[in-house]
């Protein structure tokens, strides 16, 4: 046989080996995560329900899904074992005692700056054309030409033939 005819089979076997290897790694990591479970830890099931572990048996786990409400789940149904801070943040809405990265108002951002900088006004409006007269009316001819060109393109009238 020629090596060219064997090449597709070799590539296929290599791909199958890589896929089974990654699947075994995921299973091993999931087993390690389930071994971290202890009574009192917070977990998330594969269905997305958050609960507290009460008992751990060989293949099952007793979870408290609400105060006084217990349910038995298979160990394989545990999707993630959560840290206490993350579980409390998600379930109870308790935030960690950290100062916010963004202040509630802008006053703390301007502390210590000189007052002269605060008095400087910046005009964010459009600049008036140089052809404005004293009464505030602007020259309408350039504006009219611009709108005609815009309207012509919008209506589909182009110079292309």
UniProtKB/TrEMBL annotation:
InterPro entries per UniProt: Preprotein_translocase_YajC (IPR003849)
Matching SMART domains: YajC
Entry's localization field: Cell membrane
Pfam short name (any one): YajC
Cell membrane recorded as keyword: yes
Top-level taxon of origin: Bacteria
Topology within the bilayer: Single-pass membrane protein
Keywords carried by this UniProt record: Cell membrane, Membrane, Protein transport, Translocation, Transmembrane, Transmembrane helix, Transport
One cellular component (GO) term of this entry: plasma membrane
Segments for region (Disordered): 95-161
Biased composition regions of type Basic and acidic residues, renumbered to the chain: 134-161
Keyword Transport in record: yes
GO terms classed as biological process: protein transport
Principal location class: membrane
Family the entry assigns: Belongs to the YajC family.
Name used for this protein in its record: Preprotein translocase subunit YajC
Species this chain originates from: Streptomyces olivoverticillatus
């Amino acid at each position: 046989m020629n090596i060219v005819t064997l090449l597709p089979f070799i590539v296929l076997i290599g791909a199958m080996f890589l896929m089974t290897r990654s699947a075994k790694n995921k299973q091993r990591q999931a087993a390690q995560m389930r071994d971290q479970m202890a009574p009192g830890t917070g977990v998330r099931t594969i269905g997305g329900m958050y609960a507290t572990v009460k008992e751990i048996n060989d293949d099952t786990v007793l979870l408290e899904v609400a105060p006084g409400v217990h349910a038995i789940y298979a160990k394989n149904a545990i999707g993630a074992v959560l840290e206490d801070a993350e579980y409390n943040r998600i379930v109870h809405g308790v935030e960690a005692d950290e100062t916010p990265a963004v202040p509630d108002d802008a006053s703390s951002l301007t502390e210590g700056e000189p007052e002269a900088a605060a008095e400087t006004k910046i005009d964010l409006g459009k600049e008036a054309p140089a052809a404005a007269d004293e009464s505030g009316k602007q020259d309408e001819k350039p504006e009219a030409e611009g709108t005609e060109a815009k309207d012509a393109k919008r209506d589909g009238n182009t110079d292309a033939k």
